[in-house]
Amino acid sequence: MTIVVGYIPSPEGEAALERAIIEARRNEARLIVVNSSKGDQLVDDRLIDAKQYHELEARLAEAGIDFWIERHSQGADAADQILHIAEAQRAELIVIGLRKRTAMGKFLMGSNAQRILLQAACPVLSLKASSDW
Fold it and tell me: Where does the UspA domain start and stop, copy by copy (predicted)?
């Protein structure tokens, strides 16, 4: 089994990662962590830097799961990256974090979460940052 998680260093990203680790342990699954950015900003806090990458790598190794980290700094948006990787790896689950956005914010910026929920070929588990499970 393969699980794909969309990860950014934020409360929502942390909630998604923590749940994905739980699911990977429970199902003895491989976890693919996708951290991506369009690369359209000079400083992009959604993309993990080298230090954060190594901390994430150590955290996943300590969790005792099989994992891979995909980090993309340019190109397609996050939804496209997650959907593409999930399809290519035949993922059985996608885990994403949700943040509250206004209707106007969704209209102007689109919604990666909505696109993933509607277009994914496998189940999607979505969590809020304050989710207690």
Answer: 2-125
